[in-house]
Amino acid sequence: MTAPTAFDLFTIGHSNLPVEHFLDLLKNSGVTAVADVRSVPFSRRFPWFSGNMLAPRLASAGIAYLAMGDALGGRPRDPELFCEGVADYERMAAVPEFRAGLDQVGAAAKRSRLCLMCAEREPLDCHRCLLVGRALAERGLKLGHILVDGTIEPQAATEERLLARAGERADLFSDRKVRLSAAYRYRARAVAARRKA
User: Fold this and answer.
1) Count: domains in the chain
2) pLDDT greater at residue 174 or residue 176
């Protein structure tokens, strides 16, 4: 298991976890601030993860709450950021607001042990990994994904799983960077937000 100190920041998906287990995962990783990267920080099924209920709960555990869904959320408001009805992560990553959000994350990660939070349990099913995590890793930050069993998976290991999942669709004769980029694009296309008609 990789020690929490090996990472510059973390990600986590709240999924359907009991809030106490969620808080334990954060505390055990040394997290002191959560950046909520959900476009809409609300959960009807798990209301304890709605931003207005989660922020005071985190504060009582000594963890700051930052709402960053406007800049780093996975559901763009601009229709130009969709391709054939699916959120286009590559286009989204090029938007100035997104890059400014990454700057804010980088600055916050220097002041605290920061964890990006979204809803999906599996990093490869979520924009926090496929969009935000990828962009932060490209900036040289070391990300660890906190999994529900408390282990922390390095972004590099997540990328290896992504490549393995791409399997036969990957061009085995291209270099790793090209294969990884194609795998990110394919996975994002499968899980990204759909535009409502």
Assistant:
1) 1
2) 176
The pLDDT of residue 3:
82
Q: Which residues contact 7 (CB under 8 A, 6 or more apart)?
A: 142, 143, 144, 152, 154
Give the span between the Cα atoms of 103 and 114, in whole angstroms: 13
Per-residue pLDDT tens over the stretch 178-194: 999 999 999 999 999 99
Q: What is the pLDDT of residue 172?
A: 60
CA–CA dist 35, 66 (Å, integer): 5
Phi, psi torsion values for 181, nearest 5 degrees: -60, -45
Q: Which domain holds residue 135?
A: 4-191
196 belongs to a structural domain: no
Mean pLDDT confidence for 74-87: 97
Task: Name the strand (E) or helix (H) holding 36.
Answer: strand 33-36
Q: Is residue 186 classed exposed, middle or buried when 0-12, 13-18 and 19+ CB atoms within 10 A define those classes? A: middle
Q: CB of 170 within 8 A of CB of 183?
A: yes
**CA-CA distance, 49 to 42, in Å (whole number)?**
7
Tokens of 139: 């900036």
Residues 6+ apart with CB under 8 A from 51: 36, 38, 41, 42, 65, 67
Q: Could you tell me the CATH number of the domain that includes residue 144?
A: 3.40.50
pTM of the model: 0.94
